[in-house]
Amino acid sequence: MSESGVPSKPEIRVLNTSAGLFAAAAEEFATLASAAVDRRGRFCVALSGGSTPKGLYSLLATMPSISWDKVCFFWGDERHVPPDSPESNYRMANEALLSKIQVPAQNVYRIPSEEKDADAAARSYEQTLRTFFHLPAGEFPRFDLIILGTGPEGHTASLFPDSSALEENARLVIAPWVNKFQSYRITFTLPVLNHAACVMFLASGADKAAIVREVLESGNSNLPAQKVHPIGGRLIWMIDGPAATELSQSATG
Predict the structure, then answer these.
(1) The domain 31-177+196-205+212-220+235-244: what is its CATH number?
(2) If exposure means fewest CB atoms within 10 Å of the residue's CB, which of 54, 107, 208, 219 is most exposed?
(3) Does the predicted TM-score (pTM) go above 0.90?
């Protein structure tokens, strides 16, 4: 974390098409990976689920310039389903990216979402993070990159509006009940998101235009996605043309 301790302001990048968004996000991913590997010998990234990240992962799978053997993969959130479920974020990333690149199995740290008890899965994954990052009590990991999206109601990862999960400031991973889906989700907490060196939001499609505008321009909302401001890190919003249609000109530069 930088000594300034100042929350980041978003870097908003509008790309004309979804293909342009994927290309720009992949370029940013590759640049961050190269810098992290040069600096520390590894690149630690937390992946997101969703159709837009899937497009990014499919493009990344075609990029041999990335030192995949030095990339360590984690997940910012997961559904409470087995890893072979069609609903699994891990399964999507594995099919779109991991199965197509030369990444050592020991570099893939999936959430044990097949656990019957979602809270037990969350606590297990928290211990995985504490061990991997050698975290003393009370410390949070610093990911090189966390990829996120936002839903139509402003949720991000599996942190939903009005959830008590938004108040958690000690745990790394929790398993909140999500009324919208009548199920548990397993998710990073806000302190983990806000300790990242870089957070990159991806937003694609006209159906995201209203929430993108609200998250980035409304001063009156209290949405989970608005609470992500990495301290001493970077906050990037990659938005395609259709998702940016309701943004003001001042917001897009």
Answers:
(1) 3.40.50.1360
(2) 219
(3) yes
